[in-house]
Amino acid sequence: MELAPYRMVLTFMAANLTIATLPAHFGYKVLEHQHHLVTKQISHYFYYFYSMRVFKFGGASIATPEKMEALLPIISNEHEPVLLVVSALGKSTNALEKIVNAACAGNKNEAIHLAEQLELEHLDYARALLDETHFIKAADALHTYFNELKRGIKLADSSRYDFSYDQVVCLGEICSTLLLHFYLVQKGLPFDWVDARTVIRTDDTYRDAGVDWNYSKQQVQAVIGRKMKAGRSILTQGFIGATINGDSVTLGREGSDYTAAMLAAMLQLESVTIWKDVEGFLNADPKMFSNTVKIEALSYNEVIEMAFYGAQIIHPKTIKPLQNNNIPLYVKCFLDPSLSGTTIQAEVTGINYPPLIVLKHDQVLLQVTSRDFSFITEDNLSRLYALFHAKKIKVNLIQNAAISFVACIDNRADKIKDLTEELNKDYKVLSNENVSLLTIRHYTPEVVEQLTANKQILLKQETRKTLQVVMK
Ligand SMILES: Nc1ncnc2c1ncn2[C@@H]1O[C@H](COP(=O)(O)OP(=O)(O)O)[C@@H](O)[C@H]1O
Ligand SMILES: N[C@@H](CC(=O)OP(=O)(O)O)C(=O)O
Prior knowledge:
Layout: H1 5-21, H2 27-44, E1 53-57, H3 65-70, H4 72-76, E2 82-86, H5 92-104, H6 108-129, H7 132-155, H8 161-169, H9 171-186, E3 191-194, H10 213-229, E4 233-237, E5 240-242, E6 248-250, H11 256-267, E7 271-276, E8 297-299, H12 300-308, H13 319-325, E9 329-333, E10 342-345, E11 356-370, H14 378-390, E12 395-400, E13 404-410, H15 413-423, E14 427-441, H16 445-452, E15 457-462, E16 466-471
Parallel strand pairs: 1-2, 1-7, 2-4, 3-4, 7-9, 8-10
Antiparallel strand pairs: 5-6, 9-10, 11-13, 11-14, 12-13, 14-16, 15-16
Helix pairs in contact: 1-2, 5-6, 5-8, 6-7, 6-9, 7-8, 7-9, 11-13
The structure holds adenosine-5'-diphosphate and aspartyl phosphate (PHD).
């Protein structure tokens, strides 16, 4: 066990020294921290310095050099080393997807051309952000990684699309963090850049890699933890890792939130803040609904349900490591850090949730019927589930009847084609494409009426708290 009494004493000394050297108005905050520290030490046997935090910046927050510059006050306000987890610039992951698609379709020249365009965009970004000395260093580093990208294009092959995808797409995060790194160094901040592929070890499920928790934790503590204990702040990438063979992987689209949560759990840090372009966690996506309201505090339970059913604001895997380690998650607005944002934690009291709405488009409803009139009960259900599992298809909603089984799944044409071929051997399969899955937590009859008016309802399920409708 790591927590020896002297560690507690040292931590207290460190906290008290901090009080002595900070201006008076910081005193209260530090005392609050001390209280928090003791509580956390006793309950978790924490290994690291417990007031260190993780900040996750997504693509929207660094879409332009001006936006990146605007993050400086947020980052430099930290009194302790901070761990930054950062995504690719703006929509550059989509640009990288186009590149790998062209390469796998055999249009290698087009892919190289698109890669060169993307490199120029990164160079323009660097030029706008950095002084001459730092620009030269950044351009050099970018060149190295765009060469890695070009190697990925040359090797890309449609017969191993997911593998090819990861070798190319992972470079978005590498390049964005290089730009931010040189900017922070230029500003004199004590940051070290860590290639997440050296610490996050995964299996070889390309595009949705599973993390080897124990190995990664050891590496994260040895590399990132050690540096932070020595007073260095860290900048690393979300969304990426590497297999035991050193091949790059990605953790699933929008997976940077998950990386942030994972690192916080592995290092037992104080909290994770994800900086978004919205005021906080709203009761629905403001891009789809008007009159949304911000929720001040949410429980892990509410958020994991919403994320699982497609709330884009948080990656569904983010909550588990945080809940397991009782680490709070804050959703804050990078456009106005003074806004209170949303706190996500274990217990939330005194809040009456409004209806929380998630609308997920581009779904497919599959109806699978046994050809020989055998019941769809335990034996058939386990066969069907095993098949979905083998094809790595996530089932968003299911319902079964005597001889049929209905599943609502994301529209991944390649996977569905494979699955249908397999199912057709024993079952009759019908599919309804282009449907939407509506999930409402804390629903009211009025909201359900309003959101389903003029829609064809293909499937409906409700429990006391949650109503779900597949509709067209
Ligand atoms: N419940 C919700 N509350 C707030 N924003 C939401 C919600 N559901 C979806 N969103 C969308 O999530 C977006 C932010 O997430 P995302 O675009 O993935 O950010 P980033 O790429 O910076 O991580 C918001 O602009 C908003 O449109
Ligand atoms: N860049 C990746 C990972 C990610 O999490 O991005 P963002 O934080 O911008 O959603 C993606 O677009 O999927």
